[in-house]
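REQUEST ID: PR-0412
SUBMITTED BY: lab tech R.K.
PRIORITY: routine
TASK: structure prediction, single protein chain
INPUT:
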Amino acid sequence: EQRYFFIWINILFFLTMNIQAQDYTISLWDDYMPNFQEVGESDILDNESEIESYQLITEPNISVYLPAKKNSTGQAVLIIPGGGYNVVVHKWEGSDVAKWLNGNGITAIVLKYRLPHAKSNIIGYKSPLLDASRAMKIIRANSDKWRIDKNNIGVMGFSAGGHLASTLGTHYDRDGSDFEDSISTISSRPDFMVLVYPVITMSEEYVHEGSRYFLLGENQTDELKHYYSNEKHVTPDTPPTFLIHSSDDESVDVENSLSFYKALRAKSINTAMHIFQHGEHGFSLANEQGSLESWKSLCIKWLRDYNRK
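STATUS: complete
OUTPUT:
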């Protein structure tokens, strides 16, 4: 019996060490969710694929990953995974990234946001920005509890998540919501942005057709294309930005990052950009991918420089 007891102890230890280490999972909306109608949908998670993605999201939330108190830098990052606005690759570009940031003393919050194609949306393209804005407000409202500086909270987006992140950075506090509660007046402006192989534009020449289709649907008016072409909405108040892309990205043209960099420079926004020769699209942490993997150390150094301001 004693032998079996120790076997079970070892099994429990192994399972504990491999559980996702988020400290909190918080629903974005409680009693009322804007731009929502009940149609009987529920979340659909494909956890059999290598990157584990949500195919449908009707219950948006944030997963909060806190570093140890002694390691904490006081900086926080809202992570927005990509997936072409068709899916959300919540682990590949979300929780895995959060654990890497935690290892560098940065509080990480992963956004699980509604996808435009859900029938529960009243207007599909409005929901992602509503959810991203709400997430930033919740983070700021909990800054003391989570030991973070409320003026040092940024956003990191990958691919279409980079589009949503840059939309938040250029359209903050203009999400179209008329919802009011105790935190609705808190600003949703990120203090900085990290955009990794991001979709930026909805204009014709360099657009990622899939992201535009799944965000805007069939009704792709010139007004909507302009509104969601974020290189056209940079102002002197747009947050400092760190950009990563690869020249051989055949999914999201590197011109997306180049055009945003140019727009930021034109408004004298502090920005840094690193373009890798090889990497293609969707490399996430780029583990064991040669020089491409260095994007992480470059990013951490940039974040630490920002933290010392």
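NOTES: Residues 11-20 have pLDDT under 50 and may be disordered.
REVIEWED BY: pending
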